[in-house]
Design goal:
Shape: elongated
Radius of gyration: 24 Å
Largest sheet: 5 strands, antiparallel
Strand content: 25-35%
Order of helices and strands: HEEHEEEEEH
Helix content: 25-40%
Structural class: alpha+beta
Distance between the termini: 45 Å
């Protein structure tokens, strides 16, 4: 029994190391950590950033804004405005699990009694956040308003953290 518990603890520890960290990179699949973007029309994009398990809401939000700034600069725009924002819980409790259990029974001519005990550990690393923003981009002087960002300024402020 001690060996089984030790093995399960080692598996849990190793899987925690294998959880995907929150890094600024392109997502390599639908549920992968990273950014993805979709051009709705010229100057309007939908940007999603999905963090790794345990990534902070601030980091996930910053990386979504950083991706929008990168798109704006690549397309020759100076600023962008976030026109819509949605944050959702992506994952949590859906990772692989290791279960431990014991049981007993009697077989043959006599009666049988069984006792079972089980527990499980979530090896998925916990919940992850995803933020989707819709942005409208523009050229020239940045207009006043809430959720309007200078692309170059935001890139230089958030860029060193990547």
């Amino acid at each position: 029994m001690k060996r089984l518990l030790l093995t399960a603890a080692l598996c849990a520890g190793l899987s925690a190391c294998a959880s995907a960290p929150t890094v600024y990179t392109a997502a390599n699949g639908r549920e992968a950590v990273g950014f993805s973007s979709y051009r709705i029309e010229p100057g309007r994009y939908r940007v999603t950033f999905r963090g790794g398990p345990g990534g902070s809401p601030e980091q996930v939000s910053d990386y979504a804004l950083l991706r929008a700034a990168d798109i704006a600069l690549a397309d020759g725009y100076d600023w962008f405005q976030v026109s819509d924002r949605m944050t959702r819980l992506a994952g949590g409790g859906s990772g692989p699990r290791v279960s431990l259990g014991t049981g007993g029974g009697s077989y043959g001519r006599g009666g049988g009694v069984g006792i079972g005990l089980g527990t499980s550990f979530d090896l998925g690393g916990g919940p992850a956040l995803a933020e989707t923003i819709e942005v409208v981009m523009g050229k020239g002087e940045k207009p006043p308003g809430v959720d309007v960002y200078d692309a170059r300024g935001l890139r230089s402020a958030l860029g060193p953290r990547t």
